[in-house]
Specification:
This protein has 1 helix and 25 strands. By secondary structure, it is mainly β. The strands form 6 sheets. Strands 4, 11, 12, 13, 17, 18, 20, 21, 22 and 23 form a 10-stranded mixed β-sheet that branches. It has one domain.
Length: 327
C-alpha cells in the first residue's frame, strides 16, 4: 500500500514521459550542405545512475557528436555543432532519475554506424510496481530539452528541425534492416493491457523541407517545400549509397503518395519547435509550398518503428551509416 503513494507514482510518470519523448526536435545549428557527424563514427558517452527507488542501475547513453564523455548528472546539450539528437534520454521528476537507451554505436569496418532498436523497457518501483513499455530507437536533427520533468504534453519538450536553406536532389546513406518476426505491431504503454495493432512493423525515415514563419502571438506555421517519407518494408543486408529522391511541391496527387506523407496539421504526429518567445509550440503545416520556394528548415528523422509513441514490434532494427545529400 505504501508503494502506491506519491513518490512511486511520480516514478511511473517519469518513466512514461521518458518513453513518450522518443521523437523529434530542432537545433540552433547553422545550416550546412552536409550535416556534421553523419558518418556516425564519433559518439559521446554519458553514464547515468538511476534512482535507488527504481533499482539504482547505471546506464550508458550515447550521443552523436565529437568523441568524448559527458557528465551524466548534467542535462545533455548538442556538442561540437552536431545537429543530431536521439531517443536516449534522461528524465528527472520529483528527484527521481530514469533513462531510456534505444540508439547505439556499432562497429562497422574501420568506424561505426548507428543502430536503432525497438524493445521493451521495464521499471520496477520499490520492487512492487512493475511496468513495461514498447520503446523505439530514433535519431533526428534537433535537440531534446533535458531533463524531462513533467508528464504533461511531453512532445512539447522537443525542438524539431534545424535551419536549412538548400534544395538537394536526394538524400543518400547506407542502411540495413531487420524486421521483427511478429506479424503485427503492439501498443504497450505500461498503463493498460497490451493492444495488437494490425500490420507489420517497419523502420521509417521522415525528411521534410519546410518554409516556416511565426505570427505575432508566437504560433509557428509552415509550407511543405520538399518531402521524402519512406518505410523500410523488408529485411536487407547492407545497402550502400542508397539514394532517396526528395520530391518538391504538392505531392498529394502523385502515384506514390500515401496518407502518411501528408501535411502535418494536427493530432499525435504534430511536431514542435522553439519560437522567438522561448516557448515550444506546434509547427502546423498549412499548405504545400511551391517548388520555387526556398525552405527555412530541415526536418530529418529515422526511427526503428513507425507510428506514434509506444507502438512497434520487439526486435525491429535499423542500421544507418555515411549519410549525405546529393546535389
Amino acid at each position: 500500500m505504501k508503494t502506491t503513494k506519491a513518490h512511486p507514482s511520480n516514478v511511473v510518470y517519469c518513466f512514461a514521459v521518458c518513453i513518450l519523448a522518443l521523437l523529434l526536435s530542432n537545433s540552433p545549428a547553422i545550416a550546412q550542405t552536409q550535416l556534421k557527424y553523419s558518418d556516425f563514427d564519433q559518439w559521446i558517452t554519458r553514464d547515468i545512475k538511476e534512482s535507488a527507488i527504481i533499482g539504482g542501475k547505471t546506464h550508458t547513453l550515447y550521443e552523436i557528436g565529437p568523441t568524448g564523455t559527458w557528465d551524466g548528472k548534467k542535462p545533455y546539450v548538442n556538442q561540437g555543432g552536431s545537429p543530431w539528437a536521439n531517443s536516449n534520454i534522461m528524465a528527472k521528476v520529483a528527484g527521481v532519475v530514469k533513462t531510456n537507451v534505444t540508439v547505439y554505436p556499432e562497429k562497422r569496418g574501420n568506424g561505426y554506424c548507428a543502430k536503432l532498436v525497438s524493445h521493451i523497457v521495464g521499471v520496477k518501483v520499490l520492487g512492487l510496481v512493475n511496468i513495461h513499455v514498447l520503446a523505439a530507437g530514433s535519431i533526428y536533427v534537433g535537440k531534446m530539452m533535458e531533463p524531462i520533468t513533467s508528464s504533461s504534453n511531453p512532445f512539447a519538450k522537443l525542438d524539431y528541425g534545424i535551419p536549412f536553406t538548400d534544395k538537394p536532389k536526394a538524400i543518400q546513406f547506407d542502411y540495413k534492416v531487420k524486421l521483427s518476426d511478429k506479424p503485427d505491431r503492439i501498443r504497450q504503454t505500461g498503463f493498460s493491457r497490451v493492444k495488437t495493432i494490425p500490420g507489420k512493423d517497419m523502420p521509417g525515415m521522415i525528411l521534410l523541407l519546410q518554409k516556416r514563419w511565426e505570427d505575432e502571438d508566437g504560433n509557428i506555421f509552415a509550407h511543405r517545400i520538399g518531402t521524402n517519407v519512406h518505410r523500410f518494408n523488408q529485411d536487407t543486408e547492407w545497402m550502400n549509397a542508397a539514394n532517396f529522391e526528395i520530391h518538391y511541391g504538392d505531392i498529394s496527387k502523385e502515384e506514390f503518395f500515401q496518407p502518411h506523407m501528408d501535411l502535418i496539421q494536427e493530432g499525435d504526429n504534430l511536431k514542435y519547435a522553439l519560437n522567438s518567445k522561448g516557448k515550444i509550440v506546434p509547427v502546423k503545416e498549412v499548405a504545400w509550398g511551391s517548388p520555387d520556394e526556398t525552405p527555412t528548415h530541415l526536418c530529418l528523422q529515422f526511427a526503428s518503428s513507425f507510428g506514434t509513441a509506444y507502438v512497434g514490434a520487439i526486435g525491429t532494427t535499423l542500421w544507418l551509416d555515411n549519410l549525405q545529400f546529393v546535389y
